[in-house]
Give the backbone structure.
Amino acid sequence: MPNEPRDKSKCPTCGKRFRMDETDAPPFCCQRCRLIDLGRWLDEDIGLPFESDESPKTIDPDLTR
Protein backbone atom coordinates (compact mmCIF):
# COMPACT_ATOMS: atom_id res chain seq x y z
CA MET A 1 0.00 0.00 0.00
CA PRO A 2 1.73 3.13 -1.18
CA ASN A 3 0.32 5.54 1.42
CA GLU A 4 1.19 3.46 4.51
CA PRO A 5 4.24 4.47 6.53
CA ARG A 6 7.19 2.08 6.38
CA ASP A 7 7.32 1.83 10.18
CA LYS A 8 4.28 -0.45 10.21
CA SER A 9 4.71 -4.20 10.60
CA LYS A 10 2.49 -6.99 9.35
CA CYS A 11 1.01 -9.39 11.91
CA PRO A 12 2.14 -12.95 11.06
CA THR A 13 -1.23 -14.36 12.16
CA CYS A 14 -3.89 -12.09 10.67
CA GLY A 15 -1.89 -9.90 8.26
CA LYS A 16 -3.06 -6.64 9.81
CA ARG A 17 -0.62 -3.72 9.49
CA PHE A 18 0.27 -2.11 12.85
CA ARG A 19 2.97 -0.14 14.61
CA MET A 20 5.19 -2.13 16.99
CA ASP A 21 4.98 0.60 19.62
CA GLU A 22 1.18 0.24 19.68
CA THR A 23 1.04 -3.44 20.68
CA ASP A 24 1.71 -5.33 23.88
CA ALA A 25 2.28 -8.58 21.98
CA PRO A 26 5.08 -8.04 19.44
CA PRO A 27 5.51 -9.28 16.75
CA PHE A 28 1.73 -9.78 16.77
CA CYS A 29 -0.88 -7.03 16.56
CA CYS A 30 -2.70 -8.24 19.71
CA GLN A 31 -2.79 -10.94 22.39
CA ARG A 32 -5.48 -12.83 20.45
CA CYS A 33 -3.16 -13.31 17.45
CA ARG A 34 -0.32 -14.30 19.79
CA LEU A 35 -2.50 -17.02 21.36
CA ILE A 36 -3.69 -18.25 17.96
CA ASP A 37 -0.04 -18.66 16.93
CA LEU A 38 0.80 -20.45 20.20
CA GLY A 39 -2.12 -22.81 19.64
CA ARG A 40 -0.82 -23.65 16.16
CA TRP A 41 2.58 -24.55 17.65
CA LEU A 42 1.05 -26.64 20.44
CA ASP A 43 -1.23 -28.48 18.00
CA GLU A 44 1.87 -29.04 15.83
CA ASP A 45 0.18 -27.36 12.85
CA ILE A 46 3.42 -25.40 12.44
CA GLY A 47 6.96 -26.11 13.56
CA LEU A 48 10.62 -25.83 12.76
CA PRO A 49 11.99 -27.67 9.73
CA PHE A 50 13.31 -31.12 10.64
CA GLU A 51 15.72 -33.38 8.81
CA SER A 52 15.52 -36.94 10.00
CA ASP A 53 18.71 -38.84 10.71
CA GLU A 54 18.50 -41.69 8.24
CA SER A 55 22.01 -42.99 8.84
CA PRO A 56 22.12 -46.71 9.59
CA LYS A 57 22.17 -47.59 13.25
CA THR A 58 24.89 -49.95 14.35
CA ILE A 59 24.87 -52.10 17.44
CA ASP A 60 28.05 -52.89 19.30
CA PRO A 61 28.19 -56.72 19.39
CA ASP A 62 29.88 -56.61 22.81
CA LEU A 63 26.82 -54.92 24.31
CA THR A 64 24.42 -57.66 23.15
CA ARG A 65 25.98 -60.49 25.16
